[in-house]
Design brief:
Layout (H helix, E strand, L loop, with lengths): L5 E4 L4 H9 L5 E2 L11 H10 L4 E4 L6 H6 L1 H21 L6 E5 L23 H13 L5 E5 L2 E2 L8 E3 L3 E2 L2 E2 H13 L4 E4 L5 E2 H5 L7 E3 L1 H7 L13 H9 L2
């Protein structure tokens, strides 16, 4: 389905910027946090009332795990209350259902055994995951929504010099996620979908983009980290593959 105008929150972030630059989604409104502070219900309602759009891509979030642990109130305010404010304004928008694509995280799963499907229990292992799960709960109040559970990275910005060869995810390049979001925006799918690649170790994944990185063990990284990390956050993406097959 085509939309006349789409609201993008979090347009200044890595994912938001890739969506904007990709050209895959047309007619985007991407307000700054000064133009629409999602943590202020009045500001969100005001922006919604002054602008006309029929779809929302909600990327705005406090996403750094360490920052969420250090500033739990801000994490709750941004990720849960902020999402609730956007959802409430979308519901109030009126006459027809606003299509709502919400970017969540693989961190809503326990992330210890891997191969998590959309039906598996959601038991986050850190505060960030809990706040994103809270945000998902708000999104379920909408009539037309798609919750994307995912993890992405920027191939041009591989931060560290070593990665664990025994830590696994299904994360994908940010440009691939941007394409997936464009697909799900136009899909009539309603519900939760895991979007990612196959199960792969961090070392095997990132050395493709930064050959100089060295392998290490998950336990060594966890010892150095101030927050709890995921051992195996890989996801079952069979539903995503099915959706892709239906919309080729």
């Amino acid at each position: 389905m085509k939309y006349d105008k789409i609201l993008l929150t979090g347009g200044s972030g890595t994912l938001g910027q890739h969506i904007l630059k990709s050209g895959l989604v047309k007619n985007i409104l991407a307000p700054s946090s000064q133009e629409m502070d999602i943590t202020k219900a009045e500001a969100v309602e005001k922006f919604f009332s002054k602008n006309d759009f029929d779809a929302v891509i909600h990327c705005a979030a406090m996403a750094r795990v360490s920052e969420c642990e250090q500033q739990p109130e801000k994490a709750v305010e941004t990720n849960i209350i902020g999402t609730n404010n956007v959802v409430a304004a979308a519901i109030k928008k009126g006459k027809k259902a606003v299509r709502f694509v919400h970017i969540s995280t693989d961190g809503v799963y326990q992330s210890t055994k891997g191969n998590y499907s959309e039906e598996d229990a959601t038991v986050p292992y850190n505060l960030y995951g809990w706040t994103k799960l809270g945000a998902e709960c708000a999104v379920h109040a909408l009539a037309s929504f798609c919750i994307i559970r995912t993890r992405f990275f920027d191939p041009k910005n591989i931060k560290y010099d070593e990665y664990a060869e025994d830590s696994y995810t299904s994360q994908i390049p940010v440009d691939e996620l941007a394409r997936a979001i464009a697909k799900m925006l136009e899909s009539d799918f309603i519900g939760v979908v895991n979007i990612g690649g196959g199960r792969v170790s961090d070392y095997e994944l990132f050395r493709k983009y930064k050959p100089s990185i060295k392998p290490c063990k998950f336990a060594d990284i966890q010892k150095k980290s101030t927050v709890k990390l995921s051992k195996d956050a890989s996801m079952n993406t069979s539903l995503w593959k099915k959706i892709q097959g239906q919309h080729k």
